[in-house]
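Weekly sync, protein design subgroup
Attendees: M.S., D.O., the rotation student, P.L. (late)

Item 1: inverse folding check
M.S. brought a backbone from last month's batch and wanted to see whether the design step gives back something sensible before we order anything. D.O. pointed out we never logged the input encoding, so this time it goes straight into the notes. C-alpha cells as presented (472 positions):
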C-alpha cells in the first residue's frame, strides 16, 4: 500500500531553511573555536598567556642573570635593564620604549597599551629588568606570525568565509528544490500559451503550488470551453454566410435576366444607363459572392494583374462612386484638400500601379457602401485622391469621407477584423462584419493597406492605399 505524503507548505519550507541556516552557523562558530583550542593543545598555537607563564616560571633565573637575561625571556617579548637611578644598561627596547617603560615602572603601572603589559623584576645586582609582553595567541612557527593574522582573528575570518559558503550552498539547495516544484507550473503555463489544453495536472509536494495548479487547471477548462464555443460560433457564421451566398444567386439570376431583357428593348437614354448600372453591379455581386467563398474557406484565387496609370485607376474609383451616389440618391464631392485626378495624372511616368483592378474595385466599393450607409444623405460622401510618399515607397491614396457619427473607440480597434459587428454607432444586427475585413484583404493582396479613423470636423474617413511606382 502506497503511503500518501502530506504536502508541505511554503512556511514550513522556509522555516526549515532558517533552522538549518542557524544550526549551520552555530556549528561553524563552534568548529572554529574548537579548532583554535585544539591547535593550542597540540602545540601549533601558543596560548594568550604563554609569555606571562614563561616569565613567572623563569623569574628567579632572570633575577640572577645580571645583564644577560635574553635566553630566559620569551622571543615574543621585549625587555630593558636599568640601574637603580633609571639609567639604561642594556636590552632591545627602542629609544621611545625605554622612556615609557621606566615611566610606567615609576608609576607602578603594568599597562603598556592594547593587550600589552609590563613585568618588573628586581635583579640581585640592584638593576631593574622591565619586560613587555602581550596577551594574545600566536603561532608556534614564528614565520606564520609574519604571514597570517593572529589565530583568534584568523578563526573569525575562517568562520566568516564558511558562513558565506554555507549561505550560498544552502540557498542554492533550497532554490533547486523550489524550482523543481515550480517546474510543473511553468509546464502548464507554456502549454496554455501554446493552446495545448489537453493535459492533466500532477500534484506537487507544496500545498501553495498545488493551489495554483488547481487554479490553472480551472482556467484551462474554462479557456477550452470558451475557445470551443467561439469556434462553433465562427463555424456557424461561416455556414450561414455560405448558405446566404448560395441563396442570393437565384434572385440575382432573375435580376440579371430581366435587366438583359430590358436592355434588348427600346429604352430612353436615362433608362438604358440605369439598366447598364444594374447589369454592371449584378456582375460585381456575382464576383463578390465568389470572393466571399474564397475568404470564408481560404481558397486562393488566380487573378490577372495589369499596369494602370494613377489617372486610370482614379477614373474607375470615381465611376464607382458615382454609381453608389446615384443608387443612394446622394451627392458625391471632393475634399477641399484633396488633389484632382487630372493633377495626379500629370505625375511621373513611374507612378503606375500593377494590380488586379477587380480586387481593388471590390475593396473600394465595399468602402463606398459603408460610407453611403452611415453618412448624412443630404451631405453625401466626399472623395480625395493623392500620391503619398511613405517609408516603404509611393502610394496612391484614395480616401472616402462620410458625415455620419464616426467610429467608436472599439470600432477603431476591431473594425477591419472578420465577423466584427461592433458598437451601435456604425453597425447593426444585419451586419456580418465582413465589409472592412474583405476590403483590407483585397488591398493587402495587391500590396496595399487600409487605414481608417475619425475626422476632427466630424464623420469617419477610410483610406485605401495602393502601391505605386511602376514604370508604364
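Designed sequence read out in the meeting:
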Amino acid at each position: 500500500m502506497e503511503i500518501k505524503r502530506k504536502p508541505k507548505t511554503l512556511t514550513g519550507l522556509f522555516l526549515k531553511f532558517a533552522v538549518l541556516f542557524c544550526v549551520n552557523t552555530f556549528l561553524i562558530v563552534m568548529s572554529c573555536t574548537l579548532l583554535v583550542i585544539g591547535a593550542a593543545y597540540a602545540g601549533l598555537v601558543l596560548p594568550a598567556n604563554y609569555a606571562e607563564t614563561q616569565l613567572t616560571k623563569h623569574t628567579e633565573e632572570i633575577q640572577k642573570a645580571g645583564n644577560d637575561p635574553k635566553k630566559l625571556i620569551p622571543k615574543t617579548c621585549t625587555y630593558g635593564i636599568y640601574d637603580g637611578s633609571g639609567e639604561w644598561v642594556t636590552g632591545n627596547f627602542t629609544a621611545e620604549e625605554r622612556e615609557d617603560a621606566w615611566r610606567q615602572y615609576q608609576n607602578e603601572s603594568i599597562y603598556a597599551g592594547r593587550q600589552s603589559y609590563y613585568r618588573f623584576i628586581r635583579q640581585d645586582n640592584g638593576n631593574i629588568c622591565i619586560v613587555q609582553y602581550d596577551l594574545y595567541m600566536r603561532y608556534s612557527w614564528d614565520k606564520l606570525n609574519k604571514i597570517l593574522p593572529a589565530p583568534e582573528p584568523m578563526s573569525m575570518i575562517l568562520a566568516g568565509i564558511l558562513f558565506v559558503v554555507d549561505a550560498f550552498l544552502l540557498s542554492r539547495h533550497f532554490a533547486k528544490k523550489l524550482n523543481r516544484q515550480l517546474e510543473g507550473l511553468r509546464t502548464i503555463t507554456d502549454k496554455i500559451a501554446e493552446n495545448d489544453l489537453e493535459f492533466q495536472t500532477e500534484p506537487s509536494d507544496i500545498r501553495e503550488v498545488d493551489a495554483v495548479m488547481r487554479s490553472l487547471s480551472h482556467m484551462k477548462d474554462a479557456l477550452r470551453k470558451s475557445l470551443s464555443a467561439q469556434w462553433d460560433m465562427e463555424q456557424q457564421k461561416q455556414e450561414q454566410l455560405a448558405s446566404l451566398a448560395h441563396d442570393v444567386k437565384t434572385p440575382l439570376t432573375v435580376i440579371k435576366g430581366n435587366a438583359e431583357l430590358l436592355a434588348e428593348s427600346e429604352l430612353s437614354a436615362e433608362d438604358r444607363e440605369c439598366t447598364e448600372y444594374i447589369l454592371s453591379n449584378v456582375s460585381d455581386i456575382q464576383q463578390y459572392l465568389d470572393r466571399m467563398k474564397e475568404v470564408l474557406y481560404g481558397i486562393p484565387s488566380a487573378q490577372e494583374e495589369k499596369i494602370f496609370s494613377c489617372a486610370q485607376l482614379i477614373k474607375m474609383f470615381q465611376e464607382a462612386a458615382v454609381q453608389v451616389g446615384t443608387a443612394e440618391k446622394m451627392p458625391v464631392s471632393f475634399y477641399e484638400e484633396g488633389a484632382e485626378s487630372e493633377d495626379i495624372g500629370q505625375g511621373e511616368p513611374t507612378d503606375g500601379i500593377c494590380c488586379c483592378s477587380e480586387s481593388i474595385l471590390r475593396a473600394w466599393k465595399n468602402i463606398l457602401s459603408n460610407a453611403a450607409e452611415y453618412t448624412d444623405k443630404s451631405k453625401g460622401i466626399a472623395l480625395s485622391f493623392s500620391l503619398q510618399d511613405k517609408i516603404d515607397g509611393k502610394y496612391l491614396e484614395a480616401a472616402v469621407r462620410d458625415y455620419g457619427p464616426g467610429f467608436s473607440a472599439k470600432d477603431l480597434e476591431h473594425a477591419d477584423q472578420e465577423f466584427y459587428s461592433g458598437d451601435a454607432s456604425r453597425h447593426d444586427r444585419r451586419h456580418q462584419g465582413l465589409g472592412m475585413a474583405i476590403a483590407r484583404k483585397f488591398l493587402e493582396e495587391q500590396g496595399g493597406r487600409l487605414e481608417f479613423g475619425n475626422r476632427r470636423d466630424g464623420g469617419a474617413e477610410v483610406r485605401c492605399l495602393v502601391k505605386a511606382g511602376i514604370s508604364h
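Discussion: The chain has three domains: 49-135, 197-206+214-301, 304-467. The radius of gyration is 50 Å.
Action: P.L. to compare against the previous round before Friday.
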